[in-house]
Amino acid sequence: MDVLKAIHTRRTIFKFRPGGVPKEVIEKIFEAGLWAPNHHLTEPWRFVVLGEQTKEKLARRYAEIQEAKAAEGASDEAKGILKEAGYAKFMSKPTIVAVACLQDGDEVKNREDYAAACCAMQNVQLAAWAEGVGMQWSTGPITLEKNTYDALDINADKEYIIGFFYTGYPDEIPEPRRKPLDEVMSWTD
């Protein structure tokens, strides 16, 4: 797929067909991340593919987070529905890959490394799309918790989890929504 076509047609995918993405395909698309620009060739990105046990553990925690969003005074039944929906949502993501970046320098280096890791993430998404694989870049409380860092063997003192890539073959592709260029670009004299 031509790079401009991949850029213009790629969409965030929220609904996936059942079944994970084969290891060889995951490796191929994440290899594209290695070619992202990064200042001083720090290569700060780290990718962790969740195995089934880790996915199950984090799904249970995600369910608890969703349950805690219940309105004050909500019934146990309402809380249970939120919890079950949270668990089902997390488990519905066929393949989950955590993306972290090194954060072991001064403020400027850390910002540069974060930006580089985000560039790697865009490369990964475009490579995935070219292979017919969809992704959703997700953040939120679960990506910030110490238990998540521990489950993924990520050192929170030296790395920052940017988010999870929910990855799979698209079941539904959303329509595009973008502002026209003239709304976001200006020119100076």
Q: What would you note in describing this structure?
A:
The protein has helices at 3-9, 23-31, 52-67, 76-91, 107-130, 141-144, 146-151, and strands at residues 45-49, 95-102, 134-138, 159-168. The chain is an alpha+beta fold and 189 residues long. It has a domain at 3-50 and 94-172: NADH Oxidase (3-Layer(aba) Sandwich). A 4-stranded antiparallel sheet has the order 1-2-4-3, covered by helices on one side. Helix 1 (3-9) packs across helix 5, helix 2 (23-31) crosses helix 5 (107-130) and helix 3 runs antiparallel to helix 4 (76-91). It starts with a helix and ends in a 21-residue tail after the last strand. 28% of the residues are buried. The model has no long low-confidence stretch (mean pLDDT 95).
List strands and helices in order, with pairings.
Blueprint lengths: L2 H7 L13 H9 L13 E5 L2 H16 L8 H16 L3 E8 L4 H24 L3 E5 L2 H4 L1 H6 L7 E10 L21
Antiparallel strand pairs: 1-2, 2-4, 3-4
Give a short overview:
This protein has seven helices and four strands, in the order ααβααβαβααβ. It has 189 residues and is α+β, with helices and mostly antiparallel strands.
